[in-house]
Amino acid sequence: MWHEAKLADDYARFAPYIDKIVGTLRRFAGYVRPELSACDYLLNKYEPGLTTETLDRFFANLRESIVPLIARVCAAKPIDESPLHVPFPIDKQRALTDAVMKRMRLDRAHVGVGETEHPFTTNFSKYDVRITTHYFADNFASGMFSTIHEGGHALYESNTGDELAYTRLGEGVSMAVHESQSRFYENIIGRSRAFVSLIAPELRALCPALEGVSEEALYRAFNASKPSLIRTEADADDLTDELIDRFGDPPGAVNALIHVALLRGEAGRAGISDISQKGNMLYFKVENFDMETLSALYAQKEFKNRVKLEAGREPRLGLKLRPGARPIPEARALVEAWNKLQKPAAEPAAEKE
């Protein structure tokens, strides 16, 4: 049912099953550890000792560095990802999977590979580990990095000590440690210049369309980064509701990150590439600045005597925070107003036949 619903892009078809599964898990958590929230119980199950309180602190620290980093990525010149989307036949991608697994020194006598809608790894012992991947004819990197990621899981499982096989100690110690192995292979090794140099000749041999693509172009395309933007307020509310349904009230830092992502998305669509705060002032770096929109903003009652223009090499708008107001809602109000007030681009002239 999940596969059918995904292919049909019909979440409503699968929603009743999700509700039953999540409801059962939440009731079970209440039976086993009634003193804990469902989220804390499930966190501890997959990562012993982890709590929402710990995650609150973790995400608060992460936000300090990741939000400015995302802003810089959004403001940078986009990287050419076209090399990833050349036609790459599926049968050739299967051969690429074989080559990648060989490079990773995966023992094919004990590590099998299959294809599924969503890649995963499972194992029955260190001698029977099974990974899966998924191929796209127009995005070979997706399948390749899925294989590397799942191969990292497989290496972890298949390299436990022989003396621990078939015991409770003969498996991964925790979810975080398991993911550290898979993501280390996928992102640190798989996206490195050294690995690109190693795999580039095999890519060109399997896919002639990559013959003229340099290693540098492949390296940059493999490391291209851009946020997946939340597009509407309803999306943020839906996401928060989903988290509550699954795990109980999410940590405050998670809620904050959702709304920061929403703000970044709206700002990007309004032509605002950077938002920063200094004291009681918010500053907005606006691309393609025009005085007509600024004049209309000045005239709005909500922003009267609170907005100012700072001229310079890179003009920016300043917004004075109202006493007691929170920065994110204030920033969103200005972004939304700026987006609505901008003069629509002129329609292109019709081409003559």
Provide the gyration radius in Å. Answer: 25 Å
How many E strands? 7
- Overall shape: globular
- Mean pLDDT over the full residue set: 84
Helix percentage range: 40-55%
Low-confidence stretches: 229-234, 345-353
Strand fraction band? 5-15%
List keywords for this structure.
13 helices, about 350 residues, about 10% strand, 3-stranded mixed β-sheet, disordered C terminus, 4-stranded antiparallel β-sheet, alpha+beta
What's the structural blueprint in terms of helices and strands?
Blueprint: H1 2-7, H2 11-32, H3 38-46, H4 52-75, H5 90-103, E1 111-115, E2 121-125, E3 128-133, H6 140-158, H7 175-189, H8 193-206, H9 215-222, H10 233-247, H11 252-269, E4 272-278, E5 281-286, H12 291-299, E6 307-310, E7 316-320, H13 327-341
Parallel strand pairs: 1-3
Antiparallel strand pairs: 2-3, 4-5, 5-7, 6-7
Helix pairs in contact: 4-11, 5-6, 5-8, 6-7, 8-9, 10-11, 11-13
Report what the structure shows.
It is a single chain. The chain is 53% helix and 11% strand. It is α+β, with helices and mostly antiparallel strands. The strands form 2 sheets. It has a 4-stranded antiparallel β-sheet with strand order 4-5-7-6. It has a 3-stranded mixed β-sheet with strand order 1-3-2, covered by helices on one side. Helix 6 packs across helix 7 and helix 8 (193-206) crosses helix 9 (215-222). The radius of gyration is 25 Å and the shape is globular. The two termini are 50 Å apart. Mean pLDDT is 84; it is low at 229-234 and 345-353.
